[in-house]
Design brief:
27% strand; ten-stranded mixed beta sheet; 836 residues; alpha+beta; seven-stranded antiparallel beta sheet; 38 strands
Length: 836
């Protein structure tokens, strides 16, 4: 099909296919070889890619649903549907393409197909429904076969949002199944969902995202998904008018059981409740051993924390029931786990369970199957626990959609939380396809005027917006600065981390529409000073009843207006859109000028004397260069005066430590990090937290105990104590800047990430009066490394004097901060005495 030939280029990632058009449902094999400066590799082992169904005309299956009438306001048992078919020849290959309106579980000859959970995932269903593809060659029998589908309501039809509203995308669950069978003699068959399938109620009486699952084993139809099952008496299916226009192939890694954990104790509360402690707050479900007699019902409730009285605490779940109930048939054996739900929990309340033992329970940790790519460890175990808490909150909220929390009746894709955390997330895990898939939905749900809704997928109706918040703003469908800006900031972050310019090309119209939307707001063309805004959400620098923080909404909104315009300008330049680049460069300059006139006095003092205002103004480059140092000095003085207490909220926290360390106050940033009194990151650790809290004072406020927004400090850990940052002009870590802060509070720091080019590492430690720094630079990349406090003549590399003759060292330069070394790919070990 395609041979590139030898191409002289330094590009080794993101090489696009440029051959003849590919056919649908076809497997293509490929091999690769590469050259470096003086060698040629052997050919790689043969690998393959396989195309999906590339055109709507490739589908011949019908969407099907049970034929019985369903009241859309009533919860019904999950239906099961089946069909038998015959494969008469010797099979070469078999593939199934499948999706559902609602959630589905596909079964073939008595077994579940694949390991994926909560398929087809959550998208803006009216515009985009993912389908999954599975190789079922080894599952098809020569002769008679049976295929079956179980359907759940999920995000599509089940209870969602604070108002427990149902039927958000449709009133009927349905499935679409298409099996392609290729025989060794060159012929083939296609098996499709149509009205020849039969349907019945199954044993899952209830299964909801928020509320859990109720299962009655007495209603099981044993063998219903086997070829010889007698489905006499089952009802017919009917076709549903769904069409194929919204179908897209799976875009991100599917949700799977990624880890299993065992509980640490069983306890009795003062109220006499039996509680299993998993030892870790998590998202997922529990697999439990089935015990009891026919008609007995096992009842479990999942929750995050014990109350102040030591008893089961369910209040912060709001309306979410998080229950699992299983009624025994009498023939039960083994274990059970629910199907179309997940819970956010650390504790399991055994409302009804006979003689529990620790080994009866296993926690199944669910999240999207994306690789953990980063690590950060240091000599302070509390900081290590903080990093683990950040990662656990990311896992818990990366269940197909980046959600705010996994436990209460919310679990929505809040745009503000995503843009705040995106940089940290991309250090920790390979988020490229995960965020890319979510951005498709952001574009799909963006309004015609460019407005970006609070949550994506956009599931909040106009009558559900809090009226008190919108009163006097003029907004009926609100957005917010720092929330809608995810349309610009997240694509830019992905481009920086992964170096794939296609994400900017794809999202450009969305990015532009958002900036254009802001441009139309306000009573001043270059200020955003109208409408509703979340402000510095959850900040503590105002009264406890005001969760919007003390930093004025106009200040934050105009700052983000400038920042998004700046990123859009850079994007337009990269994409060669010169006219747009010029227009947004002019717009950006005018916004910055208006911001300075409105929010900075001629003496260089900010109008808002808050932590967040100073951090945002500095990091968004809104302060004139002559005023930057005194601005950060005021911020540091403010911190010292209040005892290094964190008053900032969602908007300020990602930038606070970065602002301090960038402008000479790294010690102040470290004091903030190491503070253990409330409010602080480590206060949560002293209280036994295993995930990040929603609020600094969550132990008294008791909201979500698994919320990643304040975990955005993670990016600073990687970038400053760890030292790993991206050169904006060498995205994807093509060129890295490594400048670790040799903080006196740490004896060592180990940091690394798996980039698209390979592993990048920065590890340092103290050895008496000496500093040792280990650096690994990936293949086909370079790095600028600052050896802080080092004299060039005192530095050794791998035991030898530092020299430009050393393999891989391209340049050595003395600076005010130490010795700067330019490195090519390879591993290096530097040692030197740190000067006073």
């Amino acid at each position: 099909m395609w041979d590139t030939g030898k191409v002289d280029s330094d590009q080794s990632v993101h090489i696009e296919y440029d051959g003849p058009a590919l056919r649908s449902a076809t497997r293509y094999y490929y091999r690769v070889r590469v050259w470096d400066e003086d060698r040629k590799s052997e050919w790689s082992e043969r690998a393959f890619l396989e195309t999906g169904l590339l055109d709507p005309s490739d589908w011949s299956a019908d969407w099907i649903t049970p034929s019985w009438h369903i009241d859309p306001l009533t919860v019904y048992p999950c239906p099961i549907m089946r069909k038998t078919f015959t494969a008469n020849q010797e099979i070469k290959k078999a593939t199934v393409y499948v999706t559902g309106a609602g959630l589905y579980e596909l079964r073939l000859n008595g077994r579940k197909v694949g390991r994926d959970m909560l398929t087809p995932g959550w998208t803006s269903y009216h515009k985009r429904i993912q389908y999954q593809t599975y190789d079922i060659t080894d599952d098809i029998l020569r002769g008679k076969n049976a295929v079956g589908v179980v359907l759940g309501e999920g995000w599509y039809k089940g209870n969602m949002t604070w108002f427990d509203r149902r039927n958000n995308y449709g009133e009927t669950v349905s499935a679409l199944v298409q099996i392609h069978i290729q025989y060794k003699d060159g012929t083939g068959d296609t098996v499709v969902s149509d009205d020849s399938w039969t349907a019945a109620d199954g044993p899952i009486l209830f299964s909801e995202i928020y509320h859990g699952e109720v299962y009655d084993a007495r209603l099981e139809k044993t063998g219903w998904d086997m070829p010889d099952f007698d489905d006499t008496g089952w009802q017919k299916t009917v076709t549903a008018p769904m069409g194929y226009h919204a179908l897209v192939a799976q875009e991100s890694a599917p949700v799977r059981v990624m880890e299993e954990i065992k509980p640490v104790r069983i306890l009795q509360t003062p109220a006499g409740e039996t509680v299993v402690d998993m030892g870790q707050n998590m998202a997922g479900m529990v697999r439990f051993r089935i015990k009891g007699n026919r008609g007995d019902t096992i009842k479990l409730r999942h929750f995050e924390v014990l109350g102040d009285d030591g008893n089961v605490y369910l209040e912060n779940l709001v309306a979410a029931k998080q229950k699992v109930e299983y009624t025994l048939s009498g023939d039960d054996a083994g274990t059970f786990a629910p199907h179309f739900t997940y819970q956010g929990f650390r504790y399991l309340w055994l409302e009804a369970y006979p003689e529990p033992e620790l080994d009866d329970f296993t926690g199944l940790v669910l999240y999207s199957d994306i690789q953990t790519t980063g690590y950060f460890t240091c000599s302070n175990e509390m900081i290590n626990r903080l990093q683990q808490n950040i990662l656990w909150s990311q896992k818990s909220n990366f269940i197909d959609v980046p959600t705010d929390c996994p436990q209460r009746s919310e679990r929505l894709g809040w745009t503000g939380d995503v843009q705040i955390f995106a940089s940290t997330a991309a250090y920790n895990m390979d988020c490229d396809s995960f965020f890319s898939k979510w951005l498709y939905d952001l574009s799909a749900d963006q309004k015609d005027d460019g407005l970006v809704p609070w949550v994506v997928p956009d599931i909040i109706t106009e009558d559900e917006y809090p009226k008190a918040w919108l009163e006097g703003t003029g907004d009926t469908i609100p957005t917010s600065a720092g929330w809608g800006d995810a349309a610009v900031i997240v694509p830019w972050t992905l481009y920086q981390v992964y170096g794939d310019i296609r994400i900017l090309k794809r999202q450009y119209n969305s990015m532009k529409a958002w900036v254009e939307y802001i441009w139309q707001q306000g009573d001043h063309e270059y200020l955003w000073n109208t409408g509703f805004h979340f402000g510095d959400w959850a900040a503590l620098d105002t009264n406890p009843q005001n969760r919007f923080g003390a930093t004025s909404a106009d200040f934050i909104a105009t700052a983000y207006y400038a920042y998004s315009t700046k990123l859009l300008m850079k994007t337009a330049k990269l994409l060669g859109y010169e006219e747009d680049a010029h227009a947004y460069q002019q717009l950006y300059a005018k916004i910055v000028d208006a911001f300075r006139k409105e929010f900075i006095t001629p003496a260089g003092r900010l109008s808002d004397q808050t932590q967040t205002a100073h951090a945002v103004a500095l990091l968004f480059d809104l302060v004139e260069k002559k005023d930057q140092q005194k601005t950060v000095d005021r911020l540091a003085a403010m911190m010292k005066k209040n005892g290094y207490t964190l008053w900032a909220g969602f908007i300020g926290i990602p930038y606070l430590c970065f602002a301090l360390s960038r402008y000479g106050h790294a010690e102040t940033a470290m004091k903030l990090l190491l503070q253990t009194e409330c409010p602080s990151w480590l206060y949560q650790i002293t209280k036994g937290a295993t995930t990040i809290w929603e609020y600094w004072n969550n132990d008294t406020f008791k909201a979500s105990f698994n919320h990643y927004a304040y975990g955005s400090i993670g990016a600073w850990l990687y970038a400053v104590p760890g030292g790993i940052t991206i050169d904006e002009h060498g995205p994807g870590y093509k060129h890295s800047v490594i400048s670790p802060l040799l903080a006196a509070d740490f004896d060592y720091v180990k940091t690394g990430i798996q980039t698209v080019y390979g592993p990048l590492k920065s590890e340092w430690k103290r050895d008496g009066e000496n500093i040792e720094i280990g650096i690994t630079v990936p293949h086909n990349t370079s790095a600028t490394v600052l050896l802080s406090g080092a004299e060039p003549s005192s530095v050794s590399e791998n035991g030898a004097d530092l020299s430009e003759d050393t393999d891989g060292i391209m340049r050595i330069r003395k600076t005010d901060q130490g010795t700067e070394v330019e490195l090519g790919s390879g591993s290096y070990h530097f040692r030197y005495p740190k000067r006073p």
